[in-house]
UniProtKB/TrEMBL annotation:
One family name in Pfam for this protein: ANTAR
Residues in ANTAR domain copies: 19-80
Matches recorded under InterPro entries: ANTAR, WH-like_DNA-bd_sf
Residues spanning the membrane: none
Signal peptide boundaries: none
Protein's name in the database: ANTAR domain-containing protein
Length: 91
């Protein structure tokens, strides 16, 4: 192995760093997608029930999350589960 292969150049190191960052971003986006969909479904349920715009429904969901000091995805899950008849919002 030549010394060039043993010690990556600055360009190679920069490319490796960029690749690692891109892979981390991709992992974050993939993990966020289901949560984003869940929040969207919950927002739609609230909009339909309260007969409000999606923006107003999302504000309602966010406010409930903040008031209960719970993660938005957890509040959204409760809304969706309650809609499906799996649990109640209080329980």
């Amino acid at each position: 192995m030549s010394s060039d292969q043993q010690h990556p150049t600055t360009d190679e190191q920069a490319l490796r760093q960029e690749l690692a960052e891109a892979q981390a971003t991709l992992r974050q986006l993939r993990s966020a997608m289901p949560t984003n969909r869940l929040i969207g479904v919950a927002t739609g349920i609230i909009a339909e029930r309260l007969r409000v715009t999606p923006e107003r429904a999302l504000d309602t969901l966010v406010r409930a999350s903040q008031n209960d000091n719970r993660k938005l995805r957890d509040v959204a899950m409760d809304v969706v589960n309650e809609h499906r008849g799996l649990t109640t919002l209080d329980g």
